[in-house]
Amino acid sequence: MTTAVDLRAPLARYATLLHAPAGDRHHVASPLGAWLLGALCAPAAATVGGQVAEDLERALGVELITARELATALLDDPHPAVLSAAALWLAGPPIPAVDEWIAELPATVETGPLPTQAEADSWAHEHTLGLIKEMPLQIRPETLLLLVTALATRVSWARPFTLVPATRLGATSPWREAVGQVLETPSHGHDAYVARVPGIGDVAVHTGYATEGLRVTSVIAQPGTPPVEVIAAAYELAVASATRGAVDRRSLFDLPLGEGPLWTITEERVQTAAPGGREELHQAVLPAWSVFSRHDLNRADLGIPAAAAAAKHALGIPDGWHEARQVAMARYTRLGFEAAAISAMMAGVSMPIPQDGVRRTAELRFGHPYAVVALADRPWRDGWQPDITEGAAWLSLPVFSAWIAEPTEAAE
C-alpha cells in the first residue's frame, strides 16, 4: 500500500495551483480536500483511459492507482485530529459502470441515492463539526451525481497564547491600529525561528502545537513577496519540520541588530549555559484571525474537468454538464485552531431546450374491470437506491396482484 508520504510533494504543487487565483485576498482553502475529490474519480478515469486518465494523472501528480491507494489510506484510517468524510450520491437506477466505480472506492465513502438540498446541507454540517452549514453547490432537478469530501478540525494549543497590545506588531504594521490586542507565544509549547528559503530570502516561522496532535505553521516573508511563493515555502517548511528534514535555520548572531519589517533583534548581557556563551531566544507575535472562502474548482490544472469526464462516462452522459466548488473556513485564536472544508462536484444531463411543436395528449380511462400487480423493487428516496443488502431475493418479484371489478367512492 502506498503511504501518505508520497503525497506531500504533489500536494504542495497542487496547493500553489489552488491558491494562485486568490492572489493576495484574505482566503483559506483545503488543497487536500480538492485533491481527494479528483482521487476518488481515479478508478472511473482508469476505466475510461486515454486523455481523461492522462489529464487527471497530471493534475494529481501521481498515477491513478496510487491516487486511489492514497485516498483509501487517508479516508479509511483518519487522523485523530482531523475529521474526514466523503460521499458519492446518485440519482436514477443502478448502472454497471457506476457499480464498478463504487466497488473501487474507500470503504468509508458513503454511497446512496441523491439527497435533497436540506439533507446534503445537513451532511455538510454534521461532517464539519458544525463549522460549515451548507453545501457549496445547489442540487438541480437534472442532477445525477454529487461527489463530496469533508475535512474538519478543532484543536487546542498545548500552551495558549498570551494577549499583548497590537503595537507589538511593529511600527510599520498596517494592523497595529486595526486591532487592540494580538497573540504572543508563551515561554514553551511553541516553536519560532528565522529560516532562509531559496528564491525568497529570510522568513519568520512560527509553529503552534495542539494537544490533539495537530501543528499549525505560519510563515511571513518580506513585503511584496508573491503570496503563492510564501504558501509554497510554508508547505516546504512545515513538512520539513515535521519530518526532521532539512531547514536552513538562521542564527540570530548572523543577522543585524535592530528593527526590520519581520523582526526586531536585540542583545543583552546574561548568564547562560549555551555553547560558546551565545544564547538564542525566539518569540512570536501574531494576530488572531478568521476567514471564510469559496473556490471554483472546475479548472483543468486541478484535474476536476477530467474527473468529471470520468464520472459522466460512468453515468453514460459524456455530453452532460458538471460544476465543482469548495467552501472553507478557519479560525485562529488564543486558545486553539479550527478549520473545515467541503469540496463538491456535481454532474447531470441538461434539460432539453423548449421549442415550437405539436403536443398530443391521451386520457386513459380505466372504466371497466382491470388487473393490478405489485412487485418488489429497490427503495426510492429522492432517487433509486444504487444497491440493497437486505431482501435482494425480492427484487422484481410480484408480491401482490388484483383484479379490480368493484370500485368504491373516492373520499377526500
TrEMBL record:
InterPro entries membership: Serpin_sf (IPR036186), Serpin_sf_1 (IPR042178)
Protein name stated in the entry: Serpin (Serine protease inhibitor)
Organism: Asanoa ferruginea
